[in-house]
Write a structure and sequence with these properties.
Number of helices: 16
CATH class of the largest domain: Alpha Beta
CATH architecture of the largest domain: Alpha-Beta Barrel
Radius of gyration: 26 Å
Distance between the termini: 9 Å
Number of domains: 3
CATH topology of the largest domain: TIM Barrel
Number of strands: 26
Strand content: 15-25%
Length: 690
């Protein structure tokens, strides 16, 4: 049932628009600070993230705190109509602290302590750094607890990285003791007798042995655990002094080294920093699809609206070629985030830095310092649009649900386990691209998808797709079986159900943990095809999925035996020609589909098209979308806000169905077709399709 979620902060119920603001860098330029306030009003900015890297400005020497500039900033923003997302400054420790307390600097995996440089270079375990963070965060929270500008806490910045200092290694061993209780149990879980890696004491355990895959997995889990523990440490004084102010951390999409879903219960709002590589190739539809996937993933972490915490209104500065966004793209990229569940659009950065590493990174205000730039005009236009979408008919788009009848599983721990495995294939493993390959057909058709961790509840969906579910984490197999038995359709692929959570291979036949019975097959072996070799699969006549034709396959081809399943397609080459390549098996009230080979996009599109039709899964618009056009919607019980986006440089014409539509910005009636210019987005309102 569609619902409406509360605002990110119920005391400020509007879509947020603004970004990272660094007044600490401009204290010697009062005229710049004054001009910023005027420009914020012109840009429609209503929320600024302040203090993210300001520790040296807040505590220039140990124990001497200088909050006067932050007091003035908070007061002036409030008077000017802006709210503040106040940051804790732990993402960049000051030089005086690194010099006096060298133990807070990280140690790399070669045992060398880092110099004081760059940022994100502190040890999460260090008692000294934790004490300093507690002091700073307590002072910030107590001082600004009642300030009317404060609407959210931005804890640190883009958590990431690991440390191999003695403190962290000791904490890692304690983590393992708590998990396994005895060294003997750990040896069993790691199959440590292989190559005589048996441990006889906890002190022997390091984090660097790449041949012990269970150990590598636990080190990655520990990084997430220790980062989360540091987050909790940072948040404790914030929750004490400001219990009603929500807390977020800015995540980084599918960042490899932190399992974000495992951190979900420790924050109030999911936010993330989105920097797609627009214009790197001759078309942007792949970039748009991948970005939509990552928006859906972040929405799926808590299954409610998130916040686009960082984006650039123009260009980044760190790409090989940092291409500015072409006209209209900024608006469309920003509205894409809103369409997929964000309740705001924020930027890095408000004003370009004058010096150092990000002086050429895009910003709302360029070095010229005034509003007469293309980028500023586009930001201001978007600000006006977001204001209208906040206060429009049907109570605006903010807080609206993003409906999905389809779930797609993307799991950090599964990705780690696949990457750590030595064989059966050590190149082109492509876990994330494979998940996105199964996302694309839905995106092309304007069908919403929830991207979820494999441990989440999937019972409410019609269709669940679980590509390359190599590792079965505890409870996952049981949830999959229950989902299908209750009437759902499950699709999985090669490399499913190979190992348990410790990366031990399941004995007795694959896929393990009862999935042979669920899929009705036994996967005897895996043929991994060299780069030059292609396999092909051919649909069986009159198959229950209505699949037809032949399709190319590469990289992976599992040799299957039927154990009750019905073949959908068979291989045409090699020693296993004629054996099943795609199967379907009835289980309870539902069915389980197994794809044994890595097939081309044409196969994936055809299969998913058939499943969409058979399950009556409704797209956002009933008519097919032109290539490069995306459509999605947000809804409550009464209305839909429909976003139709042209992600190409060509004009596109998009048919509309028979629902009564009106333009969400002008409130004028709209009938089809929609004629969209290059990178143009239209936002429409229609009665909810219950």
């Amino acid at each position: 049932m569609a619902q409406r979620f509360p605002a990110l902060n119920p005391t400020f119920p509007v879509l947020l628009h603004g970004g990272d603001y660094n007044p600490d860098q401009w204290q010697k330029f009062p005229e710049v600070l004054s001009e910023d306030l005027r420009l914020m009003t012109l840009a429609g900015a209503n929320a600024l993230s302040v203090g993210i890297f300001a520790w040296a400005a807040l505590e220039p020497e140990e124990g001497r705190f200088t909050f006067d500039w932050l007091d003035r900033t908070m007061d002036s923003l409030e008077r000017n109509g802006q709210k503040v997302i106040l940051a804790t400054p732990s993402g960049a420790k000051p030089n005086w602290m690194a010099a006096k307390y060298p133990e807070i600097r990280r140690v790399n995996d070669q045992g060398r302590r880092d110099l004081q440089q760059s940022r994100h270079n502190h040890c999460y375990t260090s008692p000294v750094y934790r004490e300093k963070v507690t002091i700073m965060n307590s002072k910030l929270a107590e001082r600004y607890a009642k300030h009317p500008a404060l609407i959210m806490w931005h804890v640190s910045n883009e958590y990431g990285g690991d440390c191999h200092c003695p403190l962290c290694l000791a904490a890692f061993r304690e983590f393992l003791k708590a998990k396994y209780k005895t060294v003997d149990a750990l040896n069993d879980a790691y199959w440590a007798r292989f190559w005589s890696h048996t441990f006889t004491a906890w002190e022997q355990i390091e984090a660097l042995d790449s041949s012990v895959h269970g150990l590598k997995l636990d080190w990655m889990r520990f990084i997430t655990r220790q980062t989360t523990d540091f987050l909790d440490h940072e948040a404790r004084p914030l929750r004490k002094f400001t219990p009603n102010i929500p807390i977020t951390i800015n995540m980084m999409g599918t960042y490899y080294f932190l399992n974000y879903p495992a951190m979900a219960n420790h924050i109030d709002i999911v936010s993330w920093d989105s920097y797609p590589s627009w214009h790197e190739w001759d078309h942007d539809t792949n970039v748009a699809m991948s970005t939509a996937f990552t928006h859906d993933l972040n929405r799926g972490i808590k299954q409610k609206p998130f916040l686009l915490m960082e984006s650039t209104p123009s260009a980044v500065n760190w790409a090989g070629v940092s291409v500015p966004k072409r006209p209209n793209l900024h608006r469309t990229a920003s509205l894409q985030a809103i369409a997929h569940g964000s309740d705001g659009v924020l930027y890095f950065q408000w004003r370009k830095s004058r010096g150092s590493s990000e002086k050429f990174h895009g910003a709302v205000v360029d070095h010229v310092g005034h509003e007469n730039t293309r980028v500023f005009r586009e930001v201001a236009k978007l600000g006006g649009d977001l204001s209208k979408l906040s206060n429009g008919p049907a109570n605006g788009v903010m807080g609206m649900d993003t409906p999905a009848e389809v779930a797609l599983l993307f799991d950090w721990e599964v990705r780690w386990a696949i990457d750590f495995a030595q064989g059966p294939r050590n190149q082109d493993k492509n876990y994330e691209p494979t998940v996105q390959q199964h996302y694309r057909p839905f995106w092309n058709r304007g069908i919403p998808v929830d991207v979820l961790d494999s441990t989440r509840d999937i019972s409410r969906y019609k269709l669940v797709i679980a590509p390359m579910l190599y590792m079965l984490r505890p409870g996952v197999a049981d949830r999959l079986k229950a989902f299908v038995a209750a009437g759902g359709t499950l699709v999985s692929t090669y490399l499913t159900g190979i190992v348990d959570e410790n990366d031990l291979v399941h004995l007795g036949g694959l896929p393990g943990e009862g999935l042979m019975d669920l899929f009705g097959i036994w996967a005897e072996e895996i043929d991994v095809l060299p780069q030059w070799m292609k396999q092909s699969v051919e649909a069986v006549a009159d198959n229950p999925l209505d699949l037809a034709g032949s399709f190319a396959a590469r990289h992976y081809a599992e040799v299957l035996h039927l154990r009750g399943a019905t073949p959908i397609a068979t291989y045409t080459k090699e020693y296993y020609a004629g054996t099943p390549a795609v199967t379907v098996h009835k289980h309870g009230k539902g069915r389980a589909i197994y794809i044994a080979s890595r097939n081309d996009d044409a196969f994936t599109d055809a299969l998913i098209a058939s499943l969409i039709q058979q399950h009556a899964i409704r797209p956002t618009l009933s008519a097919p979308l032109p290539p490069g056009v995306s459509a999605t919607y947000r809804t409550d019980a009464q209305h839909d806000y429909v976003f139709v986006m042209n992600l190409t440089t060509d004009e596109k014409s998009v048919p509309l169905d028979a629902h009564p539509y009106q333009d969400a910005l002008t409130l004028a009636p709209v009938s089809g077709p929609l004629n969209l210019a290059s990178y143009e987005t239209r936002v429409l309102i229609r009665p909810s399709r219950k």
